[in-house]
Amino acid sequence: MSEMTNDELTKKLRQHEETITQLVEIVAATNQRLSELDKKVSERTHPVSLT
């Protein structure tokens, strides 16, 4: 089994960091969208009366 060099490990680590960052951004955007949809559904099922 071959051992990875420090440069290879550093490159692999940066790739993983970039992937994790992208996934976190996707989760955040999905959560934002779900919150918006939940708010819309709540407004439709429980309309607010201003009178």
Summarize it.
The protein has 51 residues and is mainly α.
Describe the structure.
The chain has one helix and no strands. The mean pLDDT is 91. The chain is rod-shaped, with a radius of gyration of 22 Å. The protein has 51 residues and is mainly α. The relative contact order is 0.07.
Secondary-structure blueprint:
Elements: H1 6-45
Taking all residues together, what is the mean pLDDT? Answer: 91
Please report the total strand number as a whole number: 0
Number of helices: 1
Which bin fits the share of residues in helices? over 70%
Structural class: mainly alpha
Low-confidence stretches: none
Strand content: under 5%
How far is the first residue's CA from the last residue's CA? 75 Å
Major sheet, described briefly? none
Morphology: rod-shaped
Rg, Å, rounded: 22 Å
Strand/helix succession: H
